[in-house]
Design goal:
This protein has helices at 3-11, 17-26, 55-64, 80-90; strands at 28-34, 37-38, 40-43, 46-51, 75-79, 95-99, 108-110. It is an alpha+beta fold and 135 residues long. The protein has a 4-stranded mixed sheet with strand order 3-4-6-7, covered by helices on one side. A 3-stranded antiparallel sheet has the order 2-1-5. Helix 1 (3-11) packs antiparallel against helix 2 (17-26) and helix 2 (17-26) crosses helix 4 (80-90). It comes from Streptomyces gossypii.
Length: 135
């Protein structure tokens, strides 16, 4: 199943969370870039990296952020595993990935939790293993 299908199944209550994470790790997602860096936002003490399953989902996000329809949008194609295993641990606070955030029925969060990100940066890891706690 493709990532968007796994997200739909999980949102419908029929998907397997482990299959969803596995599909995200294997998927190449589109990550918008701004001034040479990945586009992120901080919410609830977590830095969320924006990622999209396709160009149409990325365009809906850009339009929702008042971008002009004909304005070029820079993005990188990145494997989900690289975001979770390399990018998330390199950030300045607990971080996760927010997929297709402009799609009310298709969005999915991959929070900084064990089984998603490395235990060393998971906020629910055993004391002494987590990099930082969410405040």
């Amino acid at each position: 199943m493709e990532l968007a299908d796994e997200i739909a199944a999980r949102r419908a209550g029929t998907g397997d969370p482990r299959a969803l994470v596995g599909e995200f790790r294997r998927a190449a997602v589109l990550v918008p870039v701004t001034d040479g860096g990945l586009t992120t936002a901080v919410y609830g003490g977590v830095r969320w990296i924006y990622a999209f399953t396709d160009e149409a989902a990325l365009a809906r996000f850009a339009l929702a952020r008042t971008a002009m329809p004909d304005q070029p949008r820079g993005y990188e194609s990145v494997l989900g595993a690289r975001l979770l295993d390399t990018v998330v641990p390199s950030l300045d606070r607990p971080a996760g990935v927010a997929v297709n955030v402009a799609d009310a029925d298709g969005a999915m969060l991959f929070p900084p939790a064990r089984g998603i990100v490395p235990d060393a940066v998971a906020v629910d890891a055993e004391p002494g293993l987590a990099g930082q706690a969410v405040r």
